[in-house]
Protein 1
Amino acid sequence: MDEGTSNAVGAAVRDADAGHRRGRALLDSTSFRGSAAEPPRAKSPGRIPLHGTMQEVMARGPNFVYAAEFIRDRYGPSKWEEVLQALSAEAAEVWRGTLLVTGAYPFRAFKEMLAALADVVGALPEEETARMYEFIADRSLSTIHKLFFNLAEPSFAIKRYPQLWQRFFEAGSVEVPTAGRGSAVLVFRLPEIFLDWLPPACLGYSTKAVEMAGGKDLKQEEISREEKKGLWVISYKLSWKEK
């Protein structure tokens, strides 16, 4: 790790107390309102009862809507049905329900789908996740975002990650302490459930975002990882070739 990258990561990680407060607030937002004795709210579009689970990590609708679209487009409706049949009853209830971009759903149901998909199509889970998030990046970004990305340098797209993260998850956060020509540093603060999902998802999404802004040959390197106050602080260095 070069000195500039090390300093940038160090500065971001030293902000752990503030980061922890933000992360904890986001984690708390995934709980049901009220005390532990209060029963879950009735089922509503975009959210299902979680059978008493009080701090379920929730993923927002774009993950689910565009993942299902990716599988149907790439493998066909019959394979998608095989994936659904391989899920637990609870996860299948989520995926067979009405999925809305504006909804929020249990992230564990998403991860269960990824494992089932890899088994059904005979692919490595990390490779399938990376491909899926390239597709999700393309489908989830608005026309205005794509226009800005096409007119800007890749670093502009990367700098938007903190705002974009909030469109995808109710828990966790990402910071971009440095982003310039050809490289950027990302610092994630996440609950443990994200650990195996993050590397391929970040690689796939970043590959598409950088390509939209005219870059190519994205590389992703993990430069630090530590658990701090109940959240995992994980730093990546992204590098790419400019147009």
Protein 2
Amino acid sequence: MRHNSIWVGLVCSAVAFSWGAEAAQAQDRLSYPQQEAFRRIKGRYNDITRTFQNSHPKYESEKPKLKGMIVPPSYYVRYISSVDNIRKKISQIDKDVESSGLPTEHKDVKPTWDGLQAIRTKVDTWEKELRAGKAKADKMADPKSYPGIEEAFARLKELEKSFKDADFGGRAKPPVKEDKRRNKRAREEEKTREAAFALFLETGKIRKWCGETWNKYRPFVIATGGKSSNFYKQYVDTANALKSFLKDANECAEKLTKQFDESMKDAQKSLKWGIENNSDRSRAPVEKAFANAKAALDVLAMFPGYPPDNLKTRQEQYEKETKSTLAAIHDLEEKILAATRAPEEVYTESDREELREKMQAAWKRAYPDEKILAIRFHASGWKRTKKWVWTDTHETEKEWSDRSEMACIVIVKTDERVATLYPAYFNKNHVSDSMSLGVHTRGGGYVIRKMLIQNLD
């Protein structure tokens, strides 16, 4: 019986040992759901490792370079996005472990799980650093952190508009006698130019303010995207408008200088023409040229920053040349005046005196205050023209024209010493059997001369 007991005990021990070995083998093996969960976890772990290695080392290498620099929030956003991506995958792993009952201490699972915990710890530290950096950057990018920035932005916008609207004008225009419309326009142009000059005088202060403003709000510009910052764009737009404004000012000064120089040359050309052609018709173009030169000179005298030496040289030139040129014009006019004679009477037809009386009456009606000294018929006779002419601008109908014309000279007393010789015309219409007299010959291209009354015979 004793031997049987021993044998039974040995058999029981062997069975127990066998069951323990099978239980241990069962614990070493993962269930199918756990294996599937572990497969997903390893895939996500590899993604986490890849994302971390692609971003964290780069961030760490950039840190020393960024020390003391202004960093925009956007810099932190891309790294925080990586952290958020890692966090999402870690959360998915935690849920998978919990739902599958995966033993994290299992010999196959533990290396992955320990690696994940190491990354989790690093990500915790990294995220804390990133969130703190972004909070600081957000404050740097917040307009509320910069008192007066909205007013500065508005002023930059206003200055841009002022520079763009400013107009230095083109040529300087002298006032024209009895031309109210042109003179009004000239005054308006002068006011516009004066406003541009006033703004030009402020450019020194404006540039200083712009420099101070840039230094004051530069951190905000960097923190809000640098060149993509709205404040930066407005600052650049204002700077470009100022640059264009200063360029216009320089071009205006050059144009006015050129106007003065060319007008002074024109005056000399007109004088030379008068002398060479023995003509008393050079005074008007000379005076016009000097008026244009004086208009340019007056504007240059007001022009801020125009070189004083250049201005003084041209002012002295103007004083000297106007005096000498007008004196030369006067001498030429006196010479021509002394040599000018009234034309001889050539027309000898019987109606001459009747025509003279008609012209005298017509002239008196047009110029009642003038004294006629003589009327000379210097033409030999009537010039007759017969032809068909169009009656309308569309040239649809014609009519017969038969006209005659004859010129004469009306000599009028200008003062006690000088008389003026004006052309006048007799116009006959043979079709209607009528006559008209042309006495309005004081403008346009009519040749008007002067002579000494004492030379009128």
